[in-house]
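Narrative summary of target 7.
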Amino acid sequence: MSIAEIAARIGSPAMLAAEAFLVPVEVKDAKQSYGRVRYLVTPVGGAGEAWVDVDRLTWQEVGA
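Modeled conformation, tokenized:
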């Protein structure tokens, strides 16, 4: 995954896998840590933010 591809996800909606749930989130920032891509996300409803591994996110299509 290129830096441009990673950066293009900032500001986009995604679904975060949390145990048996999928939670709608917005991507706020991105980084690579120990060779893994991580995104800073915040829930669409509620509050808070967390850095999560890319494999916990699925991306929503615009307008979906």
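DSSP finds one helix and five strands in the chain.
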